[in-house]
Amino acid sequence: MEAEQVYRGVVKAGRGAGAGEMSAPSVLERFKLLLGIPVIPGTLNIDLNQPFNLTLLDYVNFADIGFSVDLVKQGINYHGELGMHYGRIIVADTCPAGVVFFTWADDPRTDAELVSPYHLRTILNLQDGDTVEFRLADKEQG
User: 101 and 109 in contact (C-beta within 8 Å)?
Assistant: First the structure.
């Protein structure tokens, strides 16, 4: 079953936009409603070793939920639909988190961002270039 599969990715530096965009209480609340867990500002950016099957995740169009993202301000040239595929995961068999694939990513099936109630770099002692593993959370865990 694909949901039990372990997914692997390499930790990479981000643009720092996640912490800024997620600092608004309304954005944090929206992530909590979508994922069912509270999250802190910021994301852990990873490049997956293999393309992710996005049909395993939920999808939301930002316009439908009142999300506003200024991609030009972040230096991103993108003119498609603004949205994200998302789902609950367990990182390193211990940390509840969410995985997010933004529509404007360079490769929206391998450029993943992890959000969590914890600062994952710190609690898992992760550096750029390290491998991190996650699996989809069971529906009972979500």
Answer: yes
Residues 21-37: pLDDT tens digits?
A: 667 788 889 889 999 99
The bridge status of strand 83-91 relative to strand 7-12 is unpaired
Please give the Cα distance from 63 to 121 (Å, whole number).
31
Boundaries of domain holding 34: 2-136
pLDDT band at 142 (very low <50, low <70, confident <90, very high): very low
Q: What is the pLDDT of residue 28?
A: 87
The domain total for the chain is: 1
- Residue 141 in any domain: the answer is no
Report the C-alpha gap between 37 and 115 in whole angstroms: 10
For 113, the enclosing helix (H) or strand (E) is strand 111-115
Q: 50 in a domain, yes or no?
A: yes
CA-based max dimension of the chain: 41
pLDDT tens-digit map of 50-102:
999 999 999 998 778 777 666 556 666 666 778 899 999 999 999 999 999 98
Q: Round to whole Å and give the CA distance between 78 and 97.
A: 27
